Amino acid sequence: MTLAKTDPGAARDLAERWQTRGGAHPADHCYAVALVGLKQYKEGAARLETLAQAMGHAPDSLRAEVLDQAAQAWLLADDPARAYAADSAALNLLPGDPISSSTAPRRRAARDGTTRPPPISTAC
C-alpha cells in the first residue's frame, strides 16, 4: 500500500485491475484506501465500512482495523458521528483489548468533533 500513499491515483487503477482478476478483499481495501488518498473521504470511508461487513470470516482484529481506518476517513470527511460509530463498532469487535481501548480518547474527540485523525495505514 505504499503506492496508495505515494500515488493514490495509480493505486486506485491497480486496485481496479486487481479486482477484475479476483483480488477480493485485499483489492477492495486497496481501492478504498486509494480513494481516501485522493481526498474522496466519504466514498473511501463507506467502502471501508462495507468491506469490514463483507469480511465476516476474517479475524475480528482485522475487521476492527478496517473499521478504524473507516473512522479515520470519516473524520477527514468532517463527519464525526459516523467516525464515532465506526470506531465504536471496531471496539465492540475486540472488547477488553487494551490496544482497542487506547482508541477511546480518539473516539471521544471524534464524537465531539475536536480533532483530526492520524494518517490511514496502508497495505497495498
CATH class: Mainly Alpha
Q: What portion of residues belong to β-strands?
A: under 5%
Q: How far do the termini sit from each other? A: 3 Å
Low-confidence spans: none
Envelope shape: globular
Describe what you observe in this structure.
The chain has a single domain (2-112), classed as Tetratricopeptide repeat domain (Serine Threonine Protein Phosphatase 5, Tetratricopeptide repeat, Alpha Horseshoe), CATH 1.25.40. It contains eight helices and no strands. The radius of gyration is 14 Å and the shape is globular. It is mainly alpha-helical and 124 residues long. It has helices spanning 2-6, 8-20, 24-37, 41-54, 60-76, 80-93, 98-101, 104-112. The model has no long low-confidence stretch (mean pLDDT 84). Helix 2 packs antiparallel against helix 3, helix 3 runs antiparallel to helix 4 (41-54) and helix 5 (60-76) runs antiparallel to helix 6 (80-93). Helices cover 73% and strands 0% of the residues.
Please outline the helices and strands.
Layout: H1 2-6, H2 8-20, H3 24-37, H4 41-54, H5 60-76, H6 80-93, H7 98-101, H8 104-112
Helix pairs in contact: 2-3, 3-4, 4-5, 5-6, 6-8
Keywords:
single chain, 124 residues, mainly alpha, Serine Threonine Protein Phosphatase 5, Tetratricopeptide repeat, globular
Offer a concise description of the structure.
The protein has 124 residues and is an all-alpha fold.
